[in-house]
């Protein structure tokens, strides 16, 4: 990275590793998760691996299925000069996700609300922040899955459909 930027990301697995990489490269990072204990563990690991970060490192609780939470999360970056990068990586693959017959509607809705609406809300509010702060460069990174392209041999219809939606939404946003 040529200059530190602000990264907003979610804190497990890929999201955490991305946060560590950005912090190591000098970016200010806002770690977000629905779970306070997950954020505490993520912050501890980040601080162990990047003990003297060049940028700010902060955390916030966020339920990505709620637009008000996502809006508030992105607005925390106003004090940093706005959002430069958002990594929309929050997602679930629920144990009760099955095929077209056996997936309960509540599991379908939960999966779409987190995996699709969460990406939409994150993208929307990151773009609004970038415009507000007159950014000439920025990145919106959305996590999909190979199942968006080829389907899955295991029954996980809600997850597969959600990742197909994320892929299509990402293409539309890029255009």
Automatic annotation (TrEMBL):
Record key words, sorted: NADP, Oxidoreductase
Give the top-rank taxon of the lineage listed in the UniProt record for this protein: Eukaryota
Known Pfam families for this protein? adh_short_C2
Q: Which CDD domains match?
A: SDR_c
Cited PANTHER family: 3-OXOACYL-(ACYL-CARRIER-PROTEIN) REDUCTASE (AFU_ORTHOLOGUE AFUA_6G11210), DEHYDROGENASE_REDUCTASE FAMILY PROTEIN, PUTATIVE (AFU_ORTHOLOGUE AFUA_6G03520)-RELATED
Q: Which family does it belong to?
A: Belongs to the short-chain dehydrogenases/reductases (SDR) family.
This chain belongs to the protein called NAD(P)-binding protein
Q: Top-down, what is the taxonomic lineage of the species of origin?
A: Eukaryota, Fungi, Dikarya, Ascomycota, Pezizomycotina
């Amino acid at each position: 990275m040529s200059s530190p930027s602000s990264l907003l990301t979610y804190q497990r697995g890929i999201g955490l590793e991305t946060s560590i990489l950005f912090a190591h490269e000098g970016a200010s990072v806002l770690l977000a998760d629905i779970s306070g204990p997950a954020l505490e563990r993520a912050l501890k690991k980040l601080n162990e691996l990047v003990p003297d970060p060049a940028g700010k490192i902060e955390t916030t609780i966020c339920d990505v299925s709620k637009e008000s939470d996502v809006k508030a999360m992105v607005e925390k970056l106003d004090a940093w000069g706005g959002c430069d990068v958002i990594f929309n990586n929050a997602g679930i693959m629920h144990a009760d996700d099955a095929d077209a017959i056996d997936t309960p509607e509540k599991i379908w809705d939960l999966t779409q609300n987190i995996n699709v609406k969460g990406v939409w809300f994150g993208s929307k509010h990151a773009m609004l922040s970038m415009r507000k702060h007159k950014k000439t460069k920025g990145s919106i990174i959305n996590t999909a899955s190979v199942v968006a392209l080829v389907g899955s041999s295991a029954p996980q219809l809600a997850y597969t459909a959600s990742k197909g939606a994320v892929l299509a939404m990402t293409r539309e946003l890029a255009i």
